## 1
Amino acid sequence: MCGIVGVMGRSPVNQLIYDSLLLLQHRGQDAAGIATAHDQFFSMHKAHGLVRDVFRTRNMRALPGNSGVGQVRYPTAGSSASVDEAQPFYVNAPFGITFVHNGNLTNWRELRESLFKHDRRHINTNSDSEVLLNVFAHELQQASNGVTLDAHAVFQAVRAVHRRAKGAYAVIANISNFGLVAFRDPHGIRPLCLGRHDTDAGAEWMLASESVALTGSGFSLVRDIAPGEAVVITEDGELSTEACAEAGQEQTPCVFEYVYFARPDSVMDGISIYDARLHMGEYLADKVAKSLRLGDVDVVMPIPDSSRPSAMQLAARLGLNYREGFIKNRYVGRTFIMPGQAVRKKSVRQKLSAIDMEFRGKNVLLVDDSIVRGTTSREIVDMARAAGARKVFFASAAPAVRFPNVYGIDMPTQAELIATGRDEAQIAREIGADGLVYQDLDDLEQSLRDLNPAMRAFESSCFNGRYVTGDIDEAYLERLSRTRGLPQRSGAMAAAADE
Ligand SMILES: O=P(O)(O)OC[C@H]1O[C@H](OP(=O)(O)OP(=O)(O)O)[C@H](O)[C@@H]1O
Ligand SMILES: NC(=O)CC[C@H](N)C(=O)O
Ligand SMILES: [Mg+2]
């Protein structure tokens, strides 16, 4: 679930891209990179680590130019160890392209083979993003005959990418001496939005995974890029767009963006993430009222950070006390997107600590946005008891995660999910809770439809096992589990946690 950004500005954009990557840091903590364009050249810097660690003053000075792209990475293909898989990626032909991608291709192995056999293109990493860049580059070469490049040729190339690539992709590319290109997969699984800032010299444009990157950088949100749509912004600021996907593909944005990934101050596909989480809390409150004896609950507590709005609203709806009993260490990142179980487990303890007086002698209802591997909930219930809680109930604003994700969330095996092979009572025992309540999937999706009725369906495969791209079967999942299910331990976060 990486974060991507692209800017076509009227003055140097290096600081602007850095600032927007900071606003997208919650989407990827493993690596960061920026590539800018100036005259005939691209300049690029990428490395492992958080944005603030990757870019020093000397790196920023070496990124001149009025347009560029940037990315923060959360690896879902290849490994977090390889800095060559950090983004942006670059190809020299045709024209020279730098490229950032959020999502995951499900047919990248087949594409890689066909790129080599038929298109004579060598892929030098295990990154699906490098494969996608080369498919785009090849199709652009075909569409432009390698000579004339215009928006029409770009749209033709994106149409061909949609035909060849399967899976989830939101992409921003910068083509040398031409401009920015952005597109979103035909189902719109991964998010992408467009912003504008007017200057005396003319309009500046920014594309980003989340609206907070735009609004936090002084741009106003114009709109979301539609599923299958492509956008071209030339170097003189002229914008053209075209719907490039074949008709009949249903829009299904990833439901997990609303549950966990996106920042609450973003608006995604017409739905405020904050409002969505409040609303999830209301539906969850109704389920809690049916499942637990409310008289048994003294206090409701969020598990910082992501569950706060849901917990707050749940407490208000049920007329229960809301208290913040866990304090978060602001210098520890998000644990779920760290690479490797050992580092995730250790980080929960480093990240959260309990205020004893809020727990002593009380029955507490802990609310989290989701339970995936159970890393957080196992530790947290334990900490609540150690702090003196009498009974510990647990409610999750998302249903049980029971299936692997193949579209850009790194949960490739069922074996790692706490819900695998367990019913709710068994999961409650496993995390040590006296009672456990999960949101129903219908209610979760309805809570989003209530806020934007145009959003009829969602990509909810990790909850229901339905994969919208139609190419995922048992054999695929079995291979994924074999190839990506191995423990991964590397990258800056792992190193930091070992210190
Ligand atoms: O069951 P698990 O495998 O532990 O995954 C779920 C937990 O991970 C996430 O928190 P995270 O610490 O990543 O981020 P947050 O601070 O945004 O809540 C999420 O909010 C849950 O708390
Ligand atoms: N989560 C993502 O968007 C990851 C992008 C790409 N699949 C990678 O692994 O680098
Ligand atoms: Mg959390």
Note: Residues 303, 306, 368, 376 surround magnesium ion (ligand 3) (CB under 6 Å).
## 2
Amino acid sequence: MAPILLDNITPERSEYIEHEEVHVKNPHLHSMEEDILYHFNLSTKTHNLPEMFGDIKFVCTGGSANRMKAFAEFMQKELGLDGENGVEDICAGTDRYSTYKTGPVLSISHGMGVPSISIMLHELIKLLHHARCRDVVLIRIGTSGGIGLEPGTVVITDTAVDSFFQPHFEQVVLGKVIVRSTELDKSLAQELLQCGREILNLCTVIGKTMCTYDFYEGQGRLDGALCSFSTEEKLEYLRRAKEAGVTNIEMESTVFAAMCRVCGLKAAVVCVTLLDRFKGDQITASHELLQEYQLRPQYLVSHFIKKRLQLL
Ligand SMILES: O=P(O)(O)O[C@H]1O[C@H](CO)[C@@H](O)[C@H]1O
Ligand SMILES: O=c1cc[nH]c(=O)[nH]1
């Protein structure tokens, strides 16, 4: 078994320092003449990153490219910005991620699962660093499976946990396992919860979010191509998750929380639940209802952004 190390590049407690530029935790980066953000099709030599991105204060990210485009269009309207030509994908030169900027809001897709969001976050955090951004808040707006919650509930994550219900993210580096904390910013979570409460008919709760490496077996589903457990074993696992404080399950929150924390970035996860996993595995809601569910975290985060910008 690989040796397990607690993260040795993270200080004891990674504190967010107000008004400081976004920093990266990589001593090699400063000696590089050029930094190519390959999956964004951007580079420090070919693009003026401070001019293009220096005013970003909010980064919102979610798995689907269409959702993040829709969110950018929505924010354009909400912030009263000129939207005659719609929004344009800044990284159109690559189809790995879709990126839109509307005023101080960057909307970017991350694909599905830990490896995909982790690559995006490496390049995003370097982008924010090269652009000399300050006081940036990162929010994942996503979907999830609920544990004992009414479908359509919006969950604000207080801590992301792994499949053992631990607040950890494990990264294999040079054949060793590095364990990083997945605690999220508590006051930001409370601020978002308050925003949820201010929106009529939006059911918002706070709880732990479990992040898995798979949608099927990894989330205890009985309907994948493989399944090695019984219905009773599945329900027992979900009951144990619920007892540990888990309210929903998705596939990116631990690495998102861990990477933002190491780099001193304030981060939050806001996911709507598409089903109650105690009641089933298949997502049976209609397309229209699922579309409406996906808008709920967007409304909440838009409300939060407008409050922060003192537009409300
Ligand atoms: O709806 P988004 O944000 O894409 O995320 C959730 O949906 C995907 C699975 O359907 C996973 O990536 C999970 O985390
Ligand atoms: O059950 C679900 C629903 C959405 N996303 C997940 O990861 N799981």
Note: The chain has one domain: 36-308.
